[in-house]
Design a protein that fits this description.
- It contains 18 helices and 6 strands.
- By secondary structure, it is mostly helical.
- Among the domains are: 109 residues, Orthogonal Bundle (Helicase, Ruva Protein, domain 3), CATH 1.10.8.350; 86 residues, Lysozyme, CATH 1.10.530; 55 residues, no CATH class.
- It has a 4-stranded antiparallel sheet with strand order 4-3-6-5, covered by helices on one side. A two-stranded antiparallel sheet has the order 1-2.
- The two termini are 37 Å apart.
- One of its GO terms (molecular function) is peptidoglycan lytic transglycosylase activity.
Length: 390
């Protein structure tokens, strides 16, 4: 689960920050620094020694961290790749198998079973593939790497707490390359804060217990701001012409205003009379959705626009929504063209983040601004026409 971590988990004492570097240097020296800090935090010396005794750097973790090319795919391609008939069938089967657990999820946390089923499917294929990276090695490797030590260093100490509780084995606990554990892939701090013993065995074991994993995931979503019983996403139809600059996740308007512009549910009625944002993942000629307030919580789980939209859409499918209308969008850009576009946008003063060929939130914002400036439909979908005009 790729989550924004609690602020408290990201802070270090001034004395600790001065005592040792927070990243880099020799790996063995870095591990020793972690052990020293753990003892300074009050952990028993023998426990700390056992916990860190076999820690090693994992080059495969760093390689995986730098190669996330799947997010260069457009929404339709990505969704069709992730949502197979088999995943649909197994999702519906698991909904029945764990009906009592999902009833508890909905009662205690107000999260639809479709939402948890979609995450369960995408993160680990319903628990079948939970990752084979040694979790402690992954966390320490990423904490040592100076790209995002503030994210991963606190997770090492959270894993130590889980170890003391009997819910983490530094030698045998495995998971994703970024340190997430279990069927719905939660980081150690998230497990500490939101772990639920769903099966009543006295432990929170997200790798082997579906009730633990599903209830913990639901509690996490509620903690992140999920509103009980509210929808998250609904497919819509949009008129041939409107002010496309009003679309995008950052613009939220009342339902009445969207209706006045000619926007309607593709099937049935509105899911709720709530404000929302019109999302056009492939421009005004492609698929169209209305994102309700709960949809924003998805970005606390994973910050990839394409991933969260696909997860949100799959959740609606598992709850009975039809296959989306792909429309006939203008062809998108290749990875190389996207990088070229990002460099051009940067040259015009936009902050797109890393030039990585991925159409992320910052790149979409910049594209929409330039489209409006150039008199093109400002739908945040970059085309070769835009690239040429820039």
């Amino acid at each position: 689960m790729k989550l924004c971590l609690p602020l408290a988990a990201l802070l270090f004492s001034a004395t600790t920050a001065l005592a040792a570097p927070t990243c880099g240097g020799s790996f063995s020296g870095f591990v020793q620094g972690l052990a020293d800090e753990a003892r300074a935090k009050g952990h028993d010396a023998a426990t700390v020694k056992r916990f860190f005794s076999g820690t090693r750097q994992d080059g495969a973790v760093l390689k995986a961290d730098r190669a996330q090319g799947v997010f260069q795919l457009d929404f339709t391609t990505f969704a069709r790749r992730l949502i197979s008939n088999d995943r649909m069938k197994r999702g519906l089967s698991n909904a029945k198998k764990y009906d009592a657990v999902f009833n508890r999820v909905e009662r205690d946390y107000g999260v639809s079973r479709g939402v948890l089923l979609a995450f369960w499917a995408f993160e680990t294929d319903y628990g079948a593939f939970q990752g084979d990276f040694n979790t402690l090695n992954a966390l320490v490797t990423l904490a040592h790497d100076c790209r995002r030590p503030h994210l991963f260093r606190p997770q090492v100490f959270a894993a130590l707490e889980l170890y003391k509780h009997g819910d983490f084995d530094p030698a045998t606990t495995t998971g994703a390359w970024a340190g997430e554990i279990g069927m719905v892939q939660m980081l150690p701090q998230d497990i500490l804060d939101n772990g639920v013993d769903g099966d009543g065995d006295g432990h929170v074991r997200l790798k082997s217990s579906a009730p633990d994993a599903l209830l913990s995931g639901a509690k996490m979503l509620k903690h992140l701001g999920w509103k009980a019983g509210q929808p998250w996403l609904q497919e819509i139809t949009v008129p041939a012409n409107m002010d496309w600059s009003k679309t995008g996740i950052d613009t939220t308007l009342p339902l009445s205003q969207w209706e006045a512009m000619g926007i309607h549910p593709r099937t049935g009625q509105w899911a709720a009379n709530l404000p929302g944002s019109v999302i056009l993942p492939q421009g005004h000629k492609g698929p169209a959705f209305l994102a309700y307030p709960n949809f924003h919580v998805y970005f606390e789980w994973n910050q990839s626009f394409t991933y969260v939209l696909t997860a949100g859409y799959f959740a609606t499918r598992l709850m009975g929504a039809p296959v989306f209308d792909a429309g006939n969008p203008d062809p998108g850009l290749s990875g190389a063209q996207m990088k070229q576009l990002q460099r051009k946008l940067e040259a015009r003063g936009h902050h797109v983040g890393k030039v990585d060929g991925i159409l992320g939130a910052n790149t979409r914002k910049a594209v929409q601004i330039e489209q409006k400036h150039l008199g093109l439909p400002a739908d945040a979908w970059p085309t070769t026409e835009l690239l040429g005009k820039l």
